[in-house]
Amino acid sequence: MKDLHEQIAKLTPEKRALLEQRLVEQGLPLPNSGRIERRQSGEPSVLSHAQQRLWFIQQFDPQNTAYNICAALRLTGLLDTTLLVDALNKITERHESLRTSFLKDTGGQAFQKVHPHQRLEVPTVDISTGADSDRTVKQRIKQLSAQPFDLTKPPLRIELLKLSDEDHILALITHHIVCDRWSVMVFLRELASYYSEQQLPQLPIQYTDWAHWQRQQLQGPRLKELLDYWKTKLAGPLPETELPIAGSHLENQSSEHFPISLGPVTSSQLKKLAHDHQVSLFTVLLAAFKLFLHRYSGTSDIVVGSEVANRDRTETAGLIGLLVNTLVLRTDLSGNPTFGELAGRVHQTVSEGLTHKDLPFENLVETLNPERDLDQLTPLFQVKFDLQQVPIERQQLAGLALQRIPVEDLQTKYALRFNLQESERGIDGQIEFSSGLFDRQTIAQMAKHYENLLGEILANPSHPISQCQIISAPERAELIKLSQGPVSPGATGTLYELFEQQVHRQPNNVAVIEGDKHVTYGDLKKIADDVCCRLRDIGIGHQQRVAVSIRKSAKMVASMLGILKAGGAYVAIDPEYPEERKRYILEDSRCRVLCDDTGIQILSDGKSDDATRTTPKPSHDSLAYILYTSGSTGRPKGVAIEHRSVVALLNWARDQYSQEQLAGVLASTSICFDLSVFEIFVPLAWGGSVIVAENLFELHKLPARHQVTLINTVPSLLRQLLAGGELPESVQTVNLAGEALPHDLVATLQARKIEHIYNLYGPSEDTTYSTCAALDARCFDPAADKVHIGKPIANTHAYVLDSQLRLQPIGVAGELYLGGAGLARGYLDRPKLTDQCFIPNPISNNPPTLYRTGDRVRLREDGNLEFLSRLDDQFKIRGFRIEAGEVESLLRAHPEVEDAVVVAHDTEKMGDEKEKVLLAYLVSATTPDQKVAVHERQNEAQLTSALRQYLAEQLPSAMVPTLWQLLPQIPRLPNGKVDRRQLPQPQGLQVTATYVAPTSEIEQTLAKLWQELLKQTKVGIHDNFFELGGHSLLAIQLVTQMQGQFGIEFPLRKLFEMPTVAQLATYIDEQTDSPNTLAQTHPAALFDLRSDPNNRHEPFTLTDLQQAFWL
What we know:
Elements: H1 2-10, H2 13-25, H3 49-60, E1 68-76, H4 81-94, E2 100-104, E3 110-114, E4 124-126, H5 133-145, E5 156-164, E6 167-175, H6 181-195, H7 207-217, H8 220-233, E7 255-261, H9 263-276, H10 281-297, E8 301-308, E9 325-332, H11 339-355, H12 361-368, E10 383-388, E11 401-405, E12 416-423, E13 426-434, H13 440-459, H14 473-482, H15 495-505, E14 510-514, E15 517-520, H16 521-537, E16 545-549, H17 554-565, E17 569-572, H18 579-589, E18 593-596, E19 599-602, H19 610-613, E20 623-629, E21 637-642, H20 643-656, E22 664-667, H21 675-685, E23 689-692, E24 710-713, H22 715-723, E25 733-736, H23 743-751, E26 756-761, E27 771-774, E28 791-792, E29 796-801, E30 814-820, E31 826-827, H24 831-837, E32 838-840, E33 849-859, E34 865-870, E35 874-877, E36 880-883, H25 884-893, E37 897-908, E38 914-924, H26 937-952, E39 963-966, H27 1001-1014, H28 1032-1046, H29 1052-1057, H30 1061-1073, H31 1077-1081, H32 1104-1110
Parallel strand pairs: 4-5, 10-12, 14-23, 16-17, 16-18, 17-20, 22-23, 24-25, 25-26, 38-39
Antiparallel strand pairs: 1-6, 1-11, 2-3, 5-6, 7-13, 8-9, 12-13, 14-15, 18-19, 20-21, 21-31, 26-27, 27-28, 29-30, 30-33, 32-33, 33-34, 35-36, 37-38
């Protein structure tokens, strides 16, 4: 043996690890050099590292039973109970661990105490008279397992259940702190020996000896070597393996099990594959499992936990105790290797892990100190994979037939664990999972996909892993079916033609309501026709672009219709946009004409000849409008939409909504936001009325507010409307889009008896809406259901694909790709960007093109899509699509900013309610240190105030950050990307201006408004609205209230330019002193609308002023 020890000692760490792996897989102990010394019997002993962790868990939660270990053995035949009890007592006498308790010293430190052996009495419970003995056995074992242990006493519970004179169940329950899976096999083997009256040699050591030895070993150079390896291997943020969970384990920590069996043929083939690649069977199975996780999670950095028996010393082979250790096995799957290459990578990972396995998992966790929360079952990894390495022995008791009874854990220790073992049937085992996280159907799907993947690997081990399929052909067909919306007749005609059809049907019906003025379909057509003629006179024809920047009004609607009839396409520009952004859109779109509140402005010369007048008539594939959305490159991009796409949306709306629902549609959304397309054109196409409002918070002021039947908005704005009690009872349909929809908002709407609630999803690139979910009380339970985004609308395809453009299984996250009738033409004059985002359909030829949304979703079993997150740095504020890169580019261009990162941040608003705002992290060009002196804080405030105004001059208000945080540097990963996990929580600048009380009536009114909106006890005239917690949504409310309070028009951007009470008071004072303020703000209207209190809505001719203006 000495020669063997010397030979092993001379092995390199790599060769030693390979030897250990092979011997452990065969269930054989590896002799180790150096002896573990026996300690004095009866001395209190330190806990091993693993015991220390379990002791802490039990202290934290004394009722925890997740670490109870239960083994049940069926004994068939004439049982000698005296001999059995004697055998059990010999085992407890032989192993000190079975009579060990865990106590605290006066300093609160834990130690383990071995108690002298006392005869163990085994109670016998007679259940032979029961009608269903098997059920009774299961219930009794479950009861025994469900009882928590008091670790101040030896944690051992044994009971004998008598079913008949020749049928007994021996139930053994202990705690993991004194036992592991290998130990159970030792216990059963020794039970057979002692029952057969055999003698066993004395144990060389006891568990406390090993615990003391472990503590001594883990110090000095060896400890440093182990720590250095694991800190390097697990450096950087550890990836989260995203799996299709169904809930939160905090609600339910129960463990469930699902059987998995690979069968003898597959098992034999896997062993041959392992042999061919000179790796172990464990390596092959683990490599396939990591590939499976890669396909499910989409990440190439895969971390899995796995047990190692830690029985590589002769002294520990026959010991009962907690010796098992957990290795954290991290493998990089990037580069699309073949499976053989992947198996090689995993082999190296396992070999290195075994070389450094002596570092207890508990030490590793303590050293790395990962972020933990109560919602996380295990630190460092979420998924565990084990292959049973304990030798399967058929134990015999004299005259008795033995059968192990499977006992499932009642509480889970891991979110998910694949626990496999070899048997005569092949490779089988169980998938253990938290029933609070996964449903059984999902686990069944996982098992099937893992088996499918193994089949693909065996068939083509030399193929790149990207070619390995996890879904079957029938499953693929079902996924395609679920990804398609209803098929309806294709869209024909144009937007204006649909409007014109309604004019012919009902010329006297109200088309637009603005304030107390009503415009009929016939009147609106006349105005639009005049706009068309004027545009054609100045050279506007087929697909020519005309900018529209008009406040929400009937004039705005008429202008848009006139542009469309002329054959042109309108380019939406919000009048509230800063001048710089307006200028950019006009230049980028190359608009020759601008329609604004002053009339029609010619921006560049154009020909006006007969050729222009005979321009081709608009068709369904003509350009209809262009909406500019935020761009990641720093500049917004124009989305070009054709008539056919909008008409397809309108046709869907006709089938989805009744005439009553469309009778009065509120149009309060900016025309730069695609919700406006629905609000304006859906009612005009199908005979409803458009009720215009400057914004949603103006609704309560509208004379026609009780005629509003449908509201189309984002959840955050609707919540504010409901909080103010300003939703008219006439509203029976609510469309919500642009943001994640919270459960409680749906519940609130249901409580108000809103008949129709729709959660809608869609990017501008797919014409407003792509999916729809009806959330009325008949089919949606907010307490039990997640707010999904529904199913594809008519003639729309919505595929969930992975990074290789393969269909993802049900429940598995992927990127959403959209196709069908609503797809945009592309991005205006951006062919490269169009080619990147609009790709050939990899699934089928119909539709030919798909748009990659950048949204992470998953397909549910019921066919509904569930939105998860963005794949990039894009997010939405109040439904406004924002690319962080655009804001960051402008910030970095400022001379006082060295670096900048912009993120979306959830901030508290009311109670537990969250409000999403923009947060900018800045590195000032002059910031020397994170610890800025107090007197320098004012300079920081001046910087952020200047930056806020700088951005407000170029960006829409929703894109101006609300929160600002100065940093010495932006944390970055080794690859140069921003390490978003290391970005600190915003602390704010904590700058408070010297308090100066408001004195004038205007200042006092403004201060009171601020106090109410910002929840402040007092507001001084030099306090900054945004530094007190104001953001874009509150800014809208403030402006609305100011307009009502002072009777003036107040552009939203002014608040960003003058964010203090003093500045606003001065501006308001100047405005109220000026004559005809409103007339100057909104020059001569396009036409004079007259009230029709009798609702006859007779057509009327244009006034002289109107004729003069348009001619």
